[in-house]
């Protein structure tokens, strides 16, 4: 780079056009949501784990076990 002399015309910076302002706004907005999908997956995974745990507790009960056993016996009975 060289020093600007007083005789050289001063370059003016161009103002950003509407499209570059829009792009900048979109980038700023999306940057704030970085990692949001990962957090959503984590929440969904935790909900699935909770639901699976609830099912295990329910299916371990004697009443439910008896209902399921009767259902399978009836389904396998021919006649």
Give an overview of the whole structure:
- The chain is mostly helical and 79 residues long.
- The protein starts with 17 loop residues before the first helix and ends with a helix.
- The mean pLDDT is 80.
- It has one domain (18-76).
- The longest helix is centred in the middle third of the chain and has 24 residues, at 36-59.
- It is rod-shaped, with a radius of gyration of 33 Å.
- Helix content is 67%, strand content 0%.
H-E order: HHH
Largest sheet: none
Record field, number of beta strands? 0
Helix content: 55-70%
Number of helices, where a helix is a run of at least 4 consecutive DSSP H or I residues: 3
The shape is rod-shaped
What Rg, in angstroms, do the CA atoms define?
A: 33 Å
Structural class: mainly alpha
Pick out the low-confidence regions.
none
| Average pLDDT for all residues | 80
Integer count of domains: 1
Q: β content, as a range?
A: under 5%
């Amino acid at each position: 780079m060289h020093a600007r002399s007083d005789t050289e015309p001063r370059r003016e910076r161009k103002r950003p056009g509407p499209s570059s302002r829009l792009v900048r706004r979109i980038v700023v907005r999306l940057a704030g949501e970085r990692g949001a999908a990962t957090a959503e997956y984590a929440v969904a995974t935790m909900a699935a784990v909770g639901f699976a745990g609830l099912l295990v507790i329910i299916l371990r009960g004697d009443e439910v076990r008896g209902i399921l056993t009767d259902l399978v016996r009836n389904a396998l009975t021919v006649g």
